[in-house]
Design a protein that fits this description.
Chain lengths: ~325, ~250
């Protein structure tokens, strides 16, 4: 019985991430979306809560980090962003105890015609990767879009001092997005080579609600046994992305604001290293995705905006 | 003063009527599921005290004795025809000094589908399952887990009877593990929601081996309380917070 419980405990792991995310998405309807203007700086504070249950002696082990970040809109779709991790409470061990830089990214969005959306990023991404990245989305019509992401990265971590490797790894994923506008429901199928050189695919389904998206997913990784010591190449779980108030915000040259979304994800096999791609923006999430919603009016971007300026100011 | 507070709570309580097989986070009776569904878009988080009379077989035993435990859950109705929940049930373990502590837990998913909505002349129909997936061996369940695994087909029909609404619920249920087989077969129950307070629901159910009675009550638009007596004598109860995401 003990072994059964332990095994089941290992196979479960929670990740609750509180992150800041608010600006950058214009309103397509009557309300004015909180679109950042050139030169605008956003300083935001979020938090991460990780917890796991892999020991019989404890119900949970907890890791709490503060995740302050900054985004600077440089104009003409250029953006500089950075994020720091500050451990507050740590049951996970010494590896997680350092204050460290998590992200430092320069990015540029580019639009070719009205259907080709590109985003180039360079710098330190999360998940200890640095290098260059390109994202691409091609909306075929109102319910179908194609997407892809290619990265050339190396290892860079400040968890135990400074460790880095030359950027020699190519990761690339591509997929298809289906969006049912009537129900604000999205199906996403992506696959390819991920950052730990595993090949796999992921099928996700999301229902987008007002200020919240809830989804479930199934994934396959050919390296699950090697990377996570998992019995099965299959995994699955659920994700919740909830935008948190205030939804009406004041606009200044420098905006200081709280975290604007929390993300809760769960997977059955506790394998957070398979089918993994880095993020290139500290405020990237499954609801808002990669591009300015003023430009890419597809999917959840066609819903009422989560954040607007106070007084309907443009 | 107490009466004033109670009256105030009744006044501000929400107008949506809910029902719950609350210990799993899904709609239903007490220990018996039903074909009722929560409103589309509703998310729930809650916890439940589980009397040892409701826990499966010999799984929740320590030092030769069954113990009371609790569970907690997340649940959602993403579409009006489906409910899902994720439930953790705590295990009691021996601790140093001869003490006991809740140190680990069992996890399972519950799923309910509603292919036929209730009509004027026909009942709602739902099919569902608890604890379907074994994290070690998949759906074959050879690991010995799936402590709560069961599958069911449920029919529900409501009738207005002047003084309130009577709900009738008929279920065929199959528990996978032998130690739960006493709850197999045709089960069901009655619910009554009085017209003077639509937030209150009285429940009586037959689980296949015992008769349970209970009530649940909606409070402040976002709280659902449930209390029950299993086999007419063992208390169980819980609290759920709910929020519609639309």
């Amino acid at each position: 019985m003990e072994n059964q419980i332990l095994r089941k405990g290992i196979c479960s792991r929670w990740l609750l991430v509180l992150l800041g995310c608010c600006l950058g998405w214009p309103c397509r309807s009557q309300a004015q979306y909180a679109t950042p203007t050139a030169g605008q700086v956003d300083i935001f504070m979020g938090a991460e809560l990780h917890y796991r249950d892999i020991r019989l002696s404890r119900m949970y082990e907890v890791l709490v980090n503060l995740t302050p970040g900054v985004k600077w809109n440089l104009g003409k779709e250029w953006q500089a962003a950075a994020q720091v991790i500050i451990p507050v409470y740590n049951d996970y061990g010494d590896l997680y105890k350092r204050v460290r830089l998590n992200m430092a990214v320069l990015s540029k969005e580019l639009y070719v015609g009205d259907r080709h959306f590109l985003k180039f990023s360079g710098g330190l991404f999360d998940t200890h990767r640095y290098g260059l990245d390109v994202k691409y989305v091609f909306p075929v019509n109102a319910w179908l879009a194609l997407e892809g992401q290619v990265g050339w990265t190396g290892y860079c971590s400040m968890m135990t001092g400074w460790k880095a490797s030359a950027p020699q790894r190519i990761s690339a994923v591509a997929g298809v997005d289906l969006y049912l506008n009537r129900w604000n429901t999205e199906m996403r199928i992506t696959g390819g080579r991920y950052i730990y050189e595993d090949y796999g695919f992921m099928v996700e389904g999301f229902r987008h609600f007002r200020h919240c998206s809830v989804g479930a997913y199934v994934e396959y990784s050919d390296q699950a046994a090697a990377i996570n010591a998992s019995d099965s190449p299959w995994n699955g779980g659920f994700k919740v992305v909830m935008m948190i108030p205030p939804y009406r915000r004041s606009r200044h040259k420098v905006n200081i604001r709280p975290a604007s979304f929390f993300r809760l994800s769960y997977n059955i096999e506790a394998s957070n290293l398979t089918n993994l791609m880095y993020k290139t923006d500290p405020e990237e999430n499954e609801r808002e995705r990669w591009f300015n919603r003023d430009r890419l009016k597809w999917g959840a971007n066609t819903m009422e905006p989560d954040f607007v300026w106070k007084g309907g100011e443009k | 003063m107490r009466r004033s507070i109670l009256c105030l709570l009744l006044v501000v309580a929400g107008c949506v009527t809910l029902s719950a097989q609350q210990y799993t986070g899904l709609s239903g009776l007490l220990h018996v599921p039903s074909a009722e569904m929560r409103p589309e878009g509703e998310a729930r988080i809650g916890g439940h005290f589980l009397n040892r009379a409701i826990t499966p077989g010999k799984i929740f035993m320590l030092n030769g004795k069954k113990y009371h435990t609790f569970d907690y859950y997340l649940a959602i109705t993403p579409f009006k025809w489906v409910e899902v929940s994720y439930v953790c049930t705590a295990f009691l373990k021996n601790a140093p000094g001869g003490k006991t502590r809740f140190k680990s837990k069992d996890r399972y998913f519950s799923l309910k589908l509603n292919p036929l909505y209730e009509g004027k002349y026909w009942p709602a129909v739902a099919v569902g399952c608890n604890d379907l997936f074994d994290s070690r061996s998949g759906v074959d369940g050879n690991s010995g887990e799936l402590y709560f695994a069961n599958y069911y087909v449920a029919l529900t029909k409501h009738f207005g009877i002047g003084v309130g609404e009577l709900g009738t619920h008929l279920v065929y249920r199959y528990y996978r593990r032998e130690y739960n087989h006493r709850w197999n077969g045709v089960v069901g129950g009655l619910t009554f929601r009085p017209s003077f307070d639509r937030h209150l629901r009285a429940i009586v159910e037959w689980t296949g081996s015992e008769v349970n009675v209970g009530v649940d009550y909606e409070l402040l638009k976002h709280v659902l309380l449930q209390a029950s007596l299993l086999d007419g004598k063992h208390f169980s109860g819980g609290l759920s917070l709910y929020l519609n995401l639309f």
